[in-house]
Design goal:
2 copies of one chain form a homodimer. Chain A has 197 residues and is α+β, with helices and mostly antiparallel strands. The first copy, chain A, has a domain at 2-120: Sandwich (Jelly Rolls), CATH 2.60.120.10. In chain A, 50% of the residues lie in helices and 23% in strands. Chain A has helices at 2-13, 20-28, 85-90, 111-120, 122-148, 151-162, 171-178, 182-196; strands at 31-35, 40-42, 50-56, 58-64, 70-77, 81-83, 96-100, 104-110. In chain A, strands 1-8-3-6 form a 4-stranded antiparallel β-sheet. The first copy, chain A, has a 4-stranded antiparallel β-sheet with strand order 2-7-4-5. The A-B interface holds A 63, 65, 69, 71, 73, 85-86, 89-90, 95, 118, 122, 125-126, 128-130, 132-137, 139-144, 146-148, 176, 179 and B 63, 65, 69, 71, 73, 85-86, 89-90, 95, 118, 122, 125-126, 128-130, 132-137, 139-144, 146-148, 176, 179. Chain A binds a DNA duplex (30 and 30 nucleotides) through residues 150-151, 170-172, 180-187, 189-190.
Chain lengths: 197, 197
DNA sequence: CGAAAATTTGACATGACTCAACTGGAGTGG
DNA sequence: CCACTCCAGTTGAGTCATGTCAAATTTTCG
Protein backbone atom coordinates (compact mmCIF):
# COMPACT_ATOMS: atom_id res chain seq x y z
CA UNK A 1 0.00 0.00 0.00
CA UNK A 2 2.82 2.37 0.84
CA UNK A 3 3.91 2.70 -2.74
CA UNK A 4 0.28 3.32 -3.65
CA UNK A 5 0.21 6.38 -1.43
CA UNK A 6 3.24 7.72 -3.20
CA UNK A 7 1.62 7.06 -6.57
CA UNK A 8 -1.58 8.90 -5.72
CA UNK A 9 0.26 11.89 -4.26
CA UNK A 10 2.44 12.09 -7.34
CA UNK A 11 -0.63 11.86 -9.49
CA UNK A 12 -2.16 14.84 -7.75
CA UNK A 13 1.04 16.85 -7.63
CA UNK A 14 1.20 16.82 -11.42
CA UNK A 15 -1.69 19.28 -11.31
CA UNK A 16 -1.78 21.00 -7.90
CA UNK A 17 0.71 21.11 -5.06
CA UNK A 18 -0.44 20.25 -1.57
CA UNK A 19 1.37 21.04 1.66
CA UNK A 20 2.54 18.21 3.90
CA UNK A 21 -0.44 18.76 6.20
CA UNK A 22 -2.89 18.71 3.35
CA UNK A 23 -1.36 15.53 2.02
CA UNK A 24 -1.69 13.88 5.43
CA UNK A 25 -5.29 14.91 5.75
CA UNK A 26 -6.03 13.61 2.29
CA UNK A 27 -4.26 10.32 2.88
CA UNK A 28 -6.14 9.81 6.16
CA UNK A 29 -9.36 9.48 4.18
CA UNK A 30 -8.12 6.80 1.82
CA UNK A 31 -9.12 3.21 2.11
CA UNK A 32 -6.97 0.47 0.66
CA UNK A 33 -8.70 -2.41 -1.12
CA UNK A 34 -7.82 -5.40 -3.22
CA UNK A 35 -9.97 -7.13 -5.80
CA UNK A 36 -9.47 -10.51 -7.34
CA UNK A 37 -9.64 -11.10 -11.05
CA UNK A 38 -13.26 -10.83 -12.26
CA UNK A 39 -14.48 -9.36 -8.98
CA UNK A 40 -16.89 -6.43 -9.14
CA UNK A 41 -16.36 -2.97 -7.62
CA UNK A 42 -19.85 -1.97 -8.56
CA UNK A 43 -22.93 -3.70 -9.96
CA UNK A 44 -25.66 -1.97 -11.90
CA UNK A 45 -28.55 -0.98 -9.66
CA UNK A 46 -26.30 -0.14 -6.71
CA UNK A 47 -25.57 3.39 -5.62
CA UNK A 48 -22.09 4.57 -6.33
CA UNK A 49 -20.61 6.73 -3.65
CA UNK A 50 -16.94 6.33 -4.13
CA UNK A 51 -14.11 7.35 -6.29
CA UNK A 52 -11.28 4.89 -6.89
CA UNK A 53 -7.67 5.35 -7.76
CA UNK A 54 -6.00 2.30 -9.29
CA UNK A 55 -2.60 1.46 -7.83
CA UNK A 56 -2.14 -1.75 -9.72
CA UNK A 57 -4.28 -3.82 -12.06
CA UNK A 58 -6.96 -3.08 -14.60
CA UNK A 59 -10.71 -2.55 -14.47
CA UNK A 60 -13.49 -2.24 -17.01
CA UNK A 61 -16.53 -0.02 -16.83
CA UNK A 62 -19.40 -1.37 -18.89
CA UNK A 63 -23.10 -1.05 -19.53
CA UNK A 64 -25.38 -4.02 -20.11
CA UNK A 65 -28.29 -3.32 -22.44
CA UNK A 66 -31.79 -4.82 -22.37
CA UNK A 67 -30.78 -7.63 -24.73
CA UNK A 68 -27.97 -8.65 -22.43
CA UNK A 69 -25.08 -7.28 -24.46
CA UNK A 70 -22.27 -5.45 -22.73
CA UNK A 71 -20.81 -2.19 -23.95
CA UNK A 72 -17.48 -1.02 -22.68
CA UNK A 73 -17.60 2.61 -21.63
CA UNK A 74 -14.18 3.00 -20.15
CA UNK A 75 -11.24 1.09 -18.78
CA UNK A 76 -8.71 2.09 -16.19
CA UNK A 77 -5.25 0.87 -15.23
CA UNK A 78 -2.71 1.89 -12.62
CA UNK A 79 -2.45 5.63 -12.03
CA UNK A 80 -6.01 6.27 -13.28
CA UNK A 81 -9.13 7.38 -11.49
CA UNK A 82 -12.41 5.57 -11.93
CA UNK A 83 -15.93 5.90 -10.59
CA UNK A 84 -19.47 6.43 -11.73
CA UNK A 85 -19.85 10.16 -11.87
CA UNK A 86 -23.41 10.04 -13.17
CA UNK A 87 -24.65 7.97 -10.26
CA UNK A 88 -22.92 9.94 -7.57
CA UNK A 89 -23.73 13.34 -9.09
CA UNK A 90 -27.42 12.67 -9.47
CA UNK A 91 -27.82 10.26 -6.56
CA UNK A 92 -29.38 7.64 -8.74
CA UNK A 93 -28.64 3.91 -8.94
CA UNK A 94 -25.92 3.23 -11.42
CA UNK A 95 -26.43 1.73 -14.86
CA UNK A 96 -22.81 0.67 -14.92
CA UNK A 97 -20.71 -2.23 -13.81
CA UNK A 98 -17.10 -1.91 -12.78
CA UNK A 99 -15.12 -5.10 -12.81
CA UNK A 100 -11.50 -6.04 -12.26
CA UNK A 101 -9.94 -7.96 -15.14
CA UNK A 102 -6.82 -8.71 -13.16
CA UNK A 103 -5.93 -8.68 -9.49
CA UNK A 104 -6.37 -4.98 -8.73
CA UNK A 105 -5.31 -2.75 -5.85
CA UNK A 106 -7.09 0.52 -5.28
CA UNK A 107 -7.30 3.48 -2.97
CA UNK A 108 -10.86 4.53 -2.38
CA UNK A 109 -12.42 7.67 -1.09
CA UNK A 110 -16.06 8.12 -0.19
CA UNK A 111 -18.22 10.86 -1.57
CA UNK A 112 -18.74 12.33 1.91
CA UNK A 113 -15.06 12.45 2.65
CA UNK A 114 -14.42 13.98 -0.71
CA UNK A 115 -16.93 16.72 -0.07
CA UNK A 116 -15.36 17.38 3.28
CA UNK A 117 -11.92 17.55 1.67
CA UNK A 118 -13.13 19.99 -0.97
CA UNK A 119 -14.07 22.37 1.84
CA UNK A 120 -10.84 21.84 3.71
CA UNK A 121 -8.52 21.89 0.70
CA UNK A 122 -9.84 23.98 -2.19
CA UNK A 123 -6.84 22.98 -4.28
CA UNK A 124 -8.20 19.46 -4.26
CA UNK A 125 -11.43 20.64 -5.76
CA UNK A 126 -9.36 22.33 -8.44
CA UNK A 127 -7.57 19.07 -9.08
CA UNK A 128 -10.82 17.25 -9.74
CA UNK A 129 -12.19 20.12 -11.79
CA UNK A 130 -9.21 19.81 -14.10
CA UNK A 131 -9.47 16.03 -14.16
CA UNK A 132 -13.08 16.39 -15.23
CA UNK A 133 -12.14 18.80 -17.99
CA UNK A 134 -9.78 16.23 -19.38
CA UNK A 135 -12.43 13.59 -19.16
CA UNK A 136 -14.90 15.79 -21.04
CA UNK A 137 -12.30 16.38 -23.75
CA UNK A 138 -11.69 12.65 -23.99
CA UNK A 139 -15.37 11.72 -24.18
CA UNK A 140 -15.98 14.39 -26.75
CA UNK A 141 -13.20 13.01 -28.88
CA UNK A 142 -14.75 9.59 -28.66
CA UNK A 143 -18.07 10.96 -29.83
CA UNK A 144 -16.39 12.69 -32.75
CA UNK A 145 -14.81 9.37 -33.72
CA UNK A 146 -18.01 7.43 -33.42
CA UNK A 147 -19.81 9.98 -35.59
CA UNK A 148 -17.17 10.42 -38.26
CA UNK A 149 -15.08 7.29 -38.50
CA UNK A 150 -15.39 3.78 -39.80
CA UNK A 151 -14.82 0.77 -37.56
CA UNK A 152 -11.37 0.15 -39.03
CA UNK A 153 -10.33 3.74 -38.39
CA UNK A 154 -11.62 3.54 -34.84
CA UNK A 155 -9.65 0.38 -34.26
CA UNK A 156 -6.44 2.00 -35.49
CA UNK A 157 -7.14 4.98 -33.28
CA UNK A 158 -7.67 2.65 -30.34
CA UNK A 159 -4.34 1.00 -31.01
CA UNK A 160 -2.53 4.31 -31.24
CA UNK A 161 -4.04 5.59 -28.03
CA UNK A 162 -4.46 2.48 -25.91
CA UNK A 163 -2.18 -0.01 -27.62
CA UNK A 164 -0.57 -0.91 -24.30
CA UNK A 165 -3.88 -2.53 -23.36
CA UNK A 166 -4.05 -4.83 -26.36
CA UNK A 167 -2.74 -7.86 -24.51
CA UNK A 168 -4.33 -7.10 -21.16
CA UNK A 169 -7.92 -7.21 -22.37
CA UNK A 170 -9.66 -9.51 -24.83
CA UNK A 171 -10.70 -8.89 -28.41
CA UNK A 172 -14.26 -9.17 -27.24
CA UNK A 173 -13.75 -6.27 -24.89
CA UNK A 174 -12.04 -4.19 -27.54
CA UNK A 175 -14.93 -4.90 -29.91
CA UNK A 176 -17.35 -3.81 -27.23
CA UNK A 177 -15.40 -0.59 -26.73
CA UNK A 178 -15.39 0.16 -30.45
CA UNK A 179 -19.05 -0.68 -30.86
CA UNK A 180 -18.68 -3.59 -33.27
CA UNK A 181 -19.22 -7.33 -32.97
CA UNK A 182 -16.23 -9.53 -32.15
CA UNK A 183 -16.67 -11.31 -35.48
CA UNK A 184 -16.38 -8.07 -37.37
CA UNK A 185 -13.36 -6.95 -35.38
CA UNK A 186 -11.73 -10.25 -36.23
CA UNK A 187 -12.29 -9.53 -39.90
CA UNK A 188 -10.84 -6.05 -39.56
CA UNK A 189 -7.71 -7.48 -38.00
CA UNK A 190 -7.34 -10.06 -40.73
CA UNK A 191 -7.58 -7.42 -43.41
CA UNK A 192 -5.09 -5.16 -41.68
CA UNK A 193 -2.63 -8.02 -41.37
CA UNK A 194 -2.85 -9.11 -44.97
CA UNK A 195 -2.56 -5.57 -46.29
CA UNK A 196 0.01 -4.13 -44.01
CA UNK A 197 2.20 -6.90 -42.70
CA UNK B 1 -28.42 42.64 -20.99
CA UNK B 2 -29.83 43.33 -17.53
CA UNK B 3 -32.13 40.36 -17.64
CA UNK B 4 -29.16 38.28 -18.82
CA UNK B 5 -27.29 39.09 -15.62
CA UNK B 6 -30.25 37.90 -13.62
CA UNK B 7 -30.43 34.71 -15.66
CA UNK B 8 -26.77 33.86 -15.16
CA UNK B 9 -26.88 34.58 -11.44
CA UNK B 10 -29.97 32.41 -11.08
CA UNK B 11 -28.27 29.68 -13.06
CA UNK B 12 -25.35 29.69 -10.65
CA UNK B 13 -27.47 29.96 -7.55
CA UNK B 14 -29.16 26.68 -8.40
CA UNK B 15 -25.91 25.03 -7.39
CA UNK B 16 -23.93 27.37 -5.12
CA UNK B 17 -24.89 30.56 -3.32
CA UNK B 18 -22.74 33.62 -3.71
CA UNK B 19 -22.74 36.70 -1.52
CA UNK B 20 -23.67 40.05 -3.01
CA UNK B 21 -19.98 41.03 -3.21
CA UNK B 22 -19.05 37.80 -4.93
CA UNK B 23 -21.85 38.28 -7.41
CA UNK B 24 -20.66 41.78 -8.18
CA UNK B 25 -17.10 40.64 -8.69
CA UNK B 26 -18.27 37.86 -10.96
CA UNK B 27 -20.53 40.13 -12.98
CA UNK B 28 -17.71 42.65 -13.44
CA UNK B 29 -15.82 40.09 -15.52
CA UNK B 30 -18.66 39.37 -17.92
CA UNK B 31 -18.71 40.69 -21.43
CA UNK B 32 -21.97 41.06 -23.30
CA UNK B 33 -22.06 40.06 -26.97
CA UNK B 34 -24.56 39.58 -29.75
CA UNK B 35 -24.27 37.34 -32.76
CA UNK B 36 -26.32 37.39 -35.90
CA UNK B 37 -27.89 34.31 -37.41
CA UNK B 38 -25.16 32.09 -38.93
CA UNK B 39 -22.35 34.08 -37.34
CA UNK B 40 -19.45 32.13 -35.80
CA UNK B 41 -18.28 32.33 -32.18
CA UNK B 42 -15.34 30.11 -32.96
CA UNK B 43 -13.77 28.65 -36.07
CA UNK B 44 -11.69 25.49 -36.12
CA UNK B 45 -8.00 26.26 -35.89
CA UNK B 46 -8.50 29.18 -33.53
CA UNK B 47 -7.64 29.05 -29.86
CA UNK B 48 -10.59 28.99 -27.56
CA UNK B 49 -10.12 30.93 -24.38
CA UNK B 50 -13.61 31.73 -23.37
CA UNK B 51 -16.65 30.29 -21.83
CA UNK B 52 -20.05 31.51 -22.97
CA UNK B 53 -23.40 31.61 -21.29
CA UNK B 54 -26.35 31.88 -23.66
CA UNK B 55 -28.94 34.46 -22.64
CA UNK B 56 -31.05 34.15 -25.73
CA UNK B 57 -30.79 32.23 -28.98
CA UNK B 58 -29.30 28.94 -30.05
CA UNK B 59 -25.85 27.78 -31.11
CA UNK B 60 -24.41 24.61 -32.59
CA UNK B 61 -21.04 23.07 -31.84
CA UNK B 62 -19.78 20.93 -34.69
CA UNK B 63 -16.75 19.18 -36.06
CA UNK B 64 -15.88 19.11 -39.76
CA UNK B 65 -14.10 15.94 -40.88
CA UNK B 66 -11.49 15.55 -43.61
CA UNK B 67 -14.14 14.78 -46.23
CA UNK B 68 -15.94 18.02 -45.44
CA UNK B 69 -18.86 16.56 -43.51
CA UNK B 70 -20.07 18.22 -40.35
CA UNK B 71 -20.87 16.37 -37.18
CA UNK B 72 -22.89 18.01 -34.47
CA UNK B 73 -21.28 17.54 -31.10
CA UNK B 74 -23.53 19.70 -29.01
CA UNK B 75 -26.07 22.47 -29.16
CA UNK B 76 -26.92 25.09 -26.61
CA UNK B 77 -29.85 27.41 -26.02
CA UNK B 78 -30.69 30.07 -23.47
CA UNK B 79 -29.58 29.27 -19.92
CA UNK B 80 -26.82 26.90 -21.10
CA UNK B 81 -23.06 27.16 -20.98
CA UNK B 82 -20.95 26.49 -24.05
CA UNK B 83 -17.26 26.53 -24.88
CA UNK B 84 -14.51 24.28 -26.12
CA UNK B 85 -13.13 22.66 -23.02
CA UNK B 86 -10.63 20.52 -24.92
CA UNK B 87 -8.98 23.50 -26.55
CA UNK B 88 -8.79 25.64 -23.46
CA UNK B 89 -7.70 22.79 -21.17
CA UNK B 90 -4.86 21.66 -23.38
CA UNK B 91 -4.05 25.01 -24.97
CA UNK B 92 -4.37 23.60 -28.44
CA UNK B 93 -6.18 25.03 -31.46
CA UNK B 94 -9.76 23.90 -31.51
CA UNK B 95 -11.16 21.28 -33.87
CA UNK B 96 -14.62 22.67 -33.34
CA UNK B 97 -16.83 25.35 -34.77
CA UNK B 98 -19.43 27.18 -32.76
CA UNK B 99 -22.11 28.93 -34.78
CA UNK B 100 -25.29 30.81 -33.97
CA UNK B 101 -28.37 29.43 -35.72
CA UNK B 102 -30.48 32.38 -34.60
CA UNK B 103 -29.74 35.83 -33.34
CA UNK B 104 -27.97 35.01 -30.09
CA UNK B 105 -27.05 37.01 -27.00
CA UNK B 106 -24.30 35.77 -24.72
CA UNK B 107 -22.31 36.63 -21.65
CA UNK B 108 -18.67 35.71 -22.06
CA UNK B 109 -15.88 35.24 -19.62
CA UNK B 110 -12.22 34.79 -20.51
CA UNK B 111 -10.11 31.91 -19.30
CA UNK B 112 -7.81 34.29 -17.42
CA UNK B 113 -10.65 35.97 -15.59
CA UNK B 114 -12.13 32.61 -14.79
CA UNK B 115 -8.89 31.44 -13.25
CA UNK B 116 -8.68 34.61 -11.24
CA UNK B 117 -12.25 34.12 -10.05
CA UNK B 118 -11.57 30.53 -9.02
CA UNK B 119 -8.91 31.86 -6.66
CA UNK B 120 -11.10 34.64 -5.35
CA UNK B 121 -14.32 32.63 -5.06
CA UNK B 122 -13.76 28.93 -4.44
CA UNK B 123 -17.50 28.35 -4.59
CA UNK B 124 -17.34 29.29 -8.23
CA UNK B 125 -14.81 26.57 -8.89
CA UNK B 126 -17.22 24.20 -7.18
CA UNK B 127 -19.98 25.38 -9.46
CA UNK B 128 -17.97 24.52 -12.55
CA UNK B 129 -16.78 21.25 -11.09
CA UNK B 130 -20.40 20.21 -10.68
CA UNK B 131 -21.32 21.49 -14.13
CA UNK B 132 -18.53 19.36 -15.55
CA UNK B 133 -19.76 16.31 -13.69
CA UNK B 134 -23.12 16.74 -15.32
CA UNK B 135 -21.52 17.14 -18.69
CA UNK B 136 -19.52 13.95 -18.20
CA UNK B 137 -22.69 12.11 -17.26
CA UNK B 138 -24.41 13.46 -20.36
CA UNK B 139 -21.58 12.58 -22.73
CA UNK B 140 -21.32 9.14 -21.24
CA UNK B 141 -25.00 8.58 -21.83
CA UNK B 142 -24.57 9.60 -25.43
CA UNK B 143 -21.77 7.08 -25.85
CA UNK B 144 -23.92 4.38 -24.33
CA UNK B 145 -26.63 5.21 -26.86
CA UNK B 146 -24.30 5.27 -29.80
CA UNK B 147 -22.89 1.89 -28.79
CA UNK B 148 -26.13 0.14 -27.97
CA UNK B 149 -28.93 1.70 -29.95
CA UNK B 150 -30.18 1.76 -33.49
CA UNK B 151 -30.65 5.03 -35.37
CA UNK B 152 -34.43 4.92 -34.86
CA UNK B 153 -34.02 4.45 -31.11
CA UNK B 154 -31.53 7.30 -30.96
CA UNK B 155 -33.96 9.54 -32.82
CA UNK B 156 -36.76 8.74 -30.37
CA UNK B 157 -34.39 9.41 -27.50
CA UNK B 158 -33.43 12.73 -29.07
CA UNK B 159 -37.07 13.69 -29.33
CA UNK B 160 -37.77 12.77 -25.73
CA UNK B 161 -34.78 14.71 -24.44
CA UNK B 162 -34.47 17.62 -26.86
CA UNK B 163 -37.88 17.71 -28.51
CA UNK B 164 -38.15 21.45 -27.85
CA UNK B 165 -35.40 21.90 -30.42
CA UNK B 166 -37.14 20.08 -33.22
CA UNK B 167 -38.42 23.24 -34.87
CA UNK B 168 -35.45 25.43 -34.08
CA UNK B 169 -32.88 23.38 -35.94
CA UNK B 170 -33.07 21.58 -39.28
CA UNK B 171 -33.44 17.88 -40.02
CA UNK B 172 -29.97 18.01 -41.47
CA UNK B 173 -28.59 19.13 -38.13
CA UNK B 174 -30.53 16.51 -36.23
CA UNK B 175 -29.20 13.85 -38.60
CA UNK B 176 -25.70 15.10 -38.00
CA UNK B 177 -26.23 14.91 -34.24
CA UNK B 178 -27.52 11.36 -34.47
CA UNK B 179 -24.76 10.28 -36.79
CA UNK B 180 -26.89 9.34 -39.78
CA UNK B 181 -27.43 10.83 -43.24
CA UNK B 182 -30.34 13.21 -43.73
CA UNK B 183 -31.80 10.78 -46.26
CA UNK B 184 -31.84 8.01 -43.74
CA UNK B 185 -33.34 10.21 -41.06
CA UNK B 186 -36.07 11.12 -43.50
CA UNK B 187 -36.83 7.45 -43.96
CA UNK B 188 -36.93 6.87 -40.21
CA UNK B 189 -39.43 9.67 -39.82
CA UNK B 190 -41.60 8.32 -42.60
CA UNK B 191 -41.68 4.88 -41.01
CA UNK B 192 -42.50 6.27 -37.59
CA UNK B 193 -45.36 8.31 -39.03
CA UNK B 194 -46.93 5.48 -40.94
CA UNK B 195 -46.65 3.06 -38.02
CA UNK B 196 -47.55 5.24 -35.15
CA UNK B 197 -49.80 8.03 -36.35
C1' DC C 1 -5.07 -33.51 -20.25
C1' DG C 2 -9.71 -31.78 -20.93
C1' DA C 3 -13.39 -28.36 -20.58
C1' DA C 4 -14.66 -23.80 -21.22
C1' DA C 5 -13.85 -19.56 -23.27
C1' DA C 6 -11.90 -16.69 -26.95
C1' DT C 7 -11.18 -16.16 -31.66
C1' DT C 8 -11.85 -17.08 -36.41
C1' DT C 9 -14.42 -18.34 -40.66
C1' DG C 10 -18.00 -18.25 -43.98
C1' DA C 11 -22.80 -17.77 -45.74
C1' DC C 12 -26.37 -14.87 -45.51
C1' DA C 13 -29.28 -10.83 -43.82
C1' DT C 14 -29.99 -5.99 -42.94
C1' DG C 15 -29.16 -1.24 -41.46
C1' DA C 16 -27.35 2.59 -43.24
C1' DC C 17 -24.99 5.14 -47.09
C1' DT C 18 -24.55 7.04 -51.98
C1' DC C 19 -26.14 9.22 -55.74
C1' DA C 20 -29.31 11.30 -58.53
C1' DA C 21 -33.68 13.11 -59.26
C1' DC C 22 -37.71 15.45 -57.58
C1' DT C 23 -40.65 18.60 -54.53
C1' DG C 24 -41.72 22.47 -52.06
C1' DG C 25 -41.14 26.29 -49.37
C1' DA C 26 -38.23 30.74 -48.10
C1' DG C 27 -35.78 34.42 -49.47
C1' DT C 28 -34.37 37.95 -52.98
C1' DG C 29 -34.42 41.25 -56.55
C1' DG C 30 -36.81 43.40 -60.10
C1' DC D 1 -46.28 40.74 -56.28
C1' DC D 2 -44.22 37.78 -59.47
C1' DA D 3 -40.33 35.02 -61.19
C1' DC D 4 -36.31 32.98 -59.92
C1' DT D 5 -33.12 30.73 -57.29
C1' DC D 6 -31.63 28.10 -53.59
C1' DC D 7 -31.66 25.03 -50.05
C1' DA D 8 -34.03 21.65 -47.01
C1' DG D 9 -36.38 17.64 -47.29
C1' DT D 10 -38.02 13.43 -49.66
C1' DT D 11 -37.90 9.23 -52.69
C1' DG D 12 -36.02 5.24 -54.79
C1' DA D 13 -32.45 2.12 -56.71
C1' DG D 14 -28.33 0.10 -55.97
C1' DT D 15 -24.32 -0.76 -52.86
C1' DC D 16 -21.45 -1.28 -48.85
C1' DA D 17 -20.49 -1.78 -44.02
C1' DT D 18 -21.62 -4.29 -40.40
C1' DG D 19 -24.53 -7.71 -37.95
C1' DT D 20 -26.38 -12.64 -37.26
C1' DC D 21 -25.93 -17.30 -36.81
C1' DA D 22 -23.65 -21.57 -36.73
C1' DA D 23 -19.63 -24.12 -36.87
C1' DA D 24 -14.62 -24.84 -36.72
C1' DT D 25 -10.35 -23.79 -34.44
C1' DT D 26 -7.32 -22.09 -31.04
C1' DT D 27 -6.16 -20.62 -26.54
C1' DT D 28 -6.56 -20.52 -21.61
C1' DC D 29 -6.40 -22.49 -17.37
C1' DG D 30 -8.01 -25.53 -13.73
Amino acid sequence: MQQGIQLILDNISKIVSLTKEEQDLFVSKLQYLEYKKKEFFLHEGQFSNELNFIIEGCVLVFYTDHTGFSHLIQFAIEDWWVGDIASSTHNIPTQLNIQAVEKTKVLRISKEDLEYLFEAIPKLERFFRILLQKRVANLQQRIISSLSKTATERFLEFRAQYGFLENRITQLQIASFLGVTPEFLSMIRRKLNSTNK
